[in-house]
Amino acid sequence: MSVTALKDILDRALAERYGVAAFNIVNDLTIEAVLAAAEAERAPVILQTSVKTVRMYGRRRLHDIVAALVRDVPVPVALHLDHCPDRSVISDCLRGGWNSVLFDAHELDVAENLRQTTAVVAEARRAGAHVEGEIEGIQGVEDDLGSDDPSAVQSLEVAVDFIKRTGVDCFAPAIGNAHGQYKRAPVLDAQRVSDLVAATGVPMALHGGTGLSDEQFTDLIGRGCAKVNISTALKETYLKSSLEFLRGAAERDQWDPPALFRHQRAAVVDMARRHIRLFGGSGRAW
């Protein structure tokens, strides 16, 4: 199946109250492993690329890698640009085949954020793509973007007005969640998810998923978090599996790169399948 529209993926998930795992991939191995997990689980999946990863590879080269690996995957896949405050990068990725973007303009005042997000939505529509929006920063630094300082939370009325006037297809609310590993158990405003979905009918995106309890995931997905971001867990799994293998290689004095790659891949596949099952995405492919 070719890349599938984000709106098609998330609207189904919202209607049936399951979550679609959105994994922040970092290279070809993690892309292939996430796709293998989604295929094994018969689940739709979202491949997310940070601005940092786009710049590291170059937009054209990264898209070519994704396109080659997605080509024969028989489940719905969306290609999403995560947390991007730079309009030029958004335009470049929309021209280059991304079918979803998060315009992260939370550092602007709400009025200017609304104005620019509306323009991004119009640009995305011309490219046949969709847009995730946000008006509050999600606490924590991810891929060199963000801040450890909490962002001001806007009123429900302001958030609903933003969603309706911009026409975003998905919205990322601040509910006490944070990027990276939580230093203590988070206290989440889950009711805000319910209220936003009831007022707009738009799927919510859950950021800062790594470290939440199974019960928190299940509750938030049931309330309308149809897109669930997993970034830290993938990076930690990939790097910790590498460290584990290399320590063993050093002890044995045996250095076999393909064996390392198989070990990394197996760890990422297992991590991805575990999250897909937890979010209720297994068997939801069409």
TrEMBL record:
**Which keywords, in A-to-Z order, does the entry hold?**
Metal-binding, Zinc
The record's annotation in Pfam families points to: F_bP_aldolase
Q: Which cofactors go with this protein?
A: Zn(2+)
| GO BP terms, alphabetized | carbohydrate metabolic process
Residues binding Zn(2+) 2, per UniProt: 104, 134
Q: Which residues form the active site?
A: 82 (proton donor)
Gene3D superfamilies, per database record: Aldolase class I
Q: Where are the transmembrane segments?
A: none
Its protein name is Fructose-bisphosphate aldolase
Q: What is the lineage of its organism?
A: Bacteria, Bacillati, Actinomycetota, Actinomycetes, Micromonosporales
